[in-house]
Amino acid sequence: MKIAVSTYSFGKYAESLGWDEIIRLTKEYGAEGIDVSEPAGTFEERIATAELVASICAKYGMGLGCYCTSGDFINGSGGDLDAEVEKICREVDVAKTYGFSTMRHDCAYAPPKGEKTRRSFDSCLDRIAEGARRVTRYAASKGIVTCTENHGFFSQDSSRVEKIINAVDDDNFGALVDIGNFMCADEEPKKAVSIMAQYARHVHVKDFYYKDGMSDDPGEGWFRTRCRDYIKGAILGHGVVPVRQCLGLLKKAGYDGWLTLEYEGMEDNLKGVRISVANLKAALERI
């Protein structure tokens, strides 16, 4: 397994330092590649950014892990499924320009808007699967694997992500397993990873602090899970996510791809990324 860093992890520094310095620092900290989260701008501007980043990665000998973009086959593009599929397929073109061979898109964030009675996840599954299937078939024609992440509350549990993958039923589509994000849906990371490891096409690694929902509100920096417990981003190894155990489960399942750090803590981003990469390397060496 190889270590990458999501450029998202650099927070405010991503803009102030610029692409060249961010990628240089990522290599200096000991990572071998990067993930990119969909940058702002028009399609043409994102293509230009992709060409720039590809040239910088080539200069520093950095690999490309996964291009991450949004997506919502339920409410996206005003509820027009065809338009949402087309929008995500354009991001496949952006990913291709970077040189990524893997792209993550989200699938859904909530039941249909305007419903008097909230609809269940299962009632939305066929529509989600149709959208993801159409995107991955286009991506396959470009040599790109697609995956969806346990992300966005509505499709965050391991059971729901597994249902999406099996409903899509395409070898070009799998899971981006984020070992920390399961906590947002109040799921124990090691249990969720043991279920999802077999579907992993890419992995995000992050850590969280945790406080019970009956505790006093800890204030700024914390957010609430689906069951209203409190979590906050942490330097990898400082929180409660059993990182080494989750990596061991991935290894046992035969995963040998990228491990991409996503740092979301309140500490200075450069410090947080540097320490987190060092801790991730140490954990990987011990499994």
What do you see in this structure?
- This protein has helices spanning 13-28, 43-60, 81-98, 121-141, 158-168, 189-196, 243-252, 269-286; strands at 2-6, 33-37, 63-69, 102-105, 145-149, 173-178, 200-205, 207-211, 223-224, 230-234, 258-261.
- With 287 residues, the chain is of the alpha/beta class.
- The protein has a single domain, classed as TIM Barrel.
- Strand 1, helix 1 (13-28) and strand 2 (33-37) form a beta-alpha-beta unit.
- Helix 3 (81-98) packs across helix 4 (121-141), helix 5 runs parallel beside helix 6 (189-196) and helix 6 packs parallel to helix 7.
- The mean pLDDT is 96.
Short description:
The protein has eight helices and eleven strands. Helix 1 runs parallel beside helix 2.
